[in-house]
Model the fold of this input.
Amino acid sequence: MSGPLPLDELHGSLSDPLLDAMTFLNEATSRYPEAVSFAPGRPYEGFFEPADVHDYLDAYLAHLTDRGLGPEAVRSTLFQYGPTKGVIAGLVARTLANDEGLDVPPESLVLTVGAQEGMLLVLRALCAGPDDVLLVSSPCYVGVTGAARLLDLSTVPVPEGAAGGPDPDAVRSAARAVRAGGRRPRALYVVPDFANPSGTSMPTEARARLLAVAAAEGLLVIEDNPYGFFAREPGSRPTLKALDRYRQVVYLGSFAKTCFPGARLGYVVADQEVRAPDGRRTLLADQLAKLKSMTTVNTPALSQAVIGGMLLRHDCRLRAANARATAFYAANLGTLLGELERHFPEPLRSRIGLDWNRPEGGFFAVLTLPFAADEAAMERCARDHGVLWTPMAPFYPAGGGERRLRLSISSLTTEQIVAGVAALARFIRAEAG
Done:
């Protein structure tokens, strides 16, 4: 053929503004490299040492030898295509038991290329046809709504409750409304701890209620837990999977925030039983592996080896290994909230219509502004005041969030946060008149 390909003859997701939102943010970051950026949710780079990679790899190779593998088997494990479900499932299962109190068999795990692949596999497996609907919390991480868009799956937003996370009563109402419309509410996606983008967390009582509602409505729950370690105060709430008594929770995990993102290693715990028409029974993890074999084939053994070595070096206890990072992010979040309070005390913020939430941990906080927090405003802020942030509107599947912005503290120093909030305050005062 000659000439350009018409965009309207390609998949509809390529014209979806959702996919353009993150592209715009990346482009703006490259245009203003000197700006203090509250946009990225990536870990702080000061925790990474290149020499550690070699140490972790050596630890894993020694582990293989200790298990009785000879040189040929070790070479094959490291250099060849490996099992589709992964090679370090046993180590991950031990870590989940130590850190989260989760007792899951290694065969129920699938190691994935980041948690994003896990989302795609789970959504593809669970949603069988056009009448299957995914419920999502609103605001919602764009990775899952984007994955649903790529797969032509319908999503229905469930608003976050006042206490944090999707309100269980709203989940019930949404599921029943979907069913009344002749479709099947298949699953609910939720980030119970320090969610991206809102930073909110679900109280333990709400978690139990949510599981009860999901069971009554025949919903599977897709729990995504990248931020659970990073509470501002000691103690942790149980994951939904730890409260799961009926295998209704499919658990998505990632080593991006707790180890390092460059490994691109995630996992799915899918211990649900699947019954075939002939009566044969397998695990949902086995079905996900079938899909993975037709996409990424297998997860790189080198990434698994490095993360496996890191787990071994820390006795499969990542919560303890992340104590320094937890303290760092808690201090950063405290600095952000303190600086916002210093620049906008009451009654000033009430007078101009400004407010923000006060998350109990994680990477993110959300500001509500007296003006539109759109891409144009973000560009003015970056150009005139040297500060970048993330507009919240793309995180609302059914619209909303036009006057809200997300601030991430994870990749900044204390000094950068102090300077960034001061510059952001100048921008807000200028825009608010």
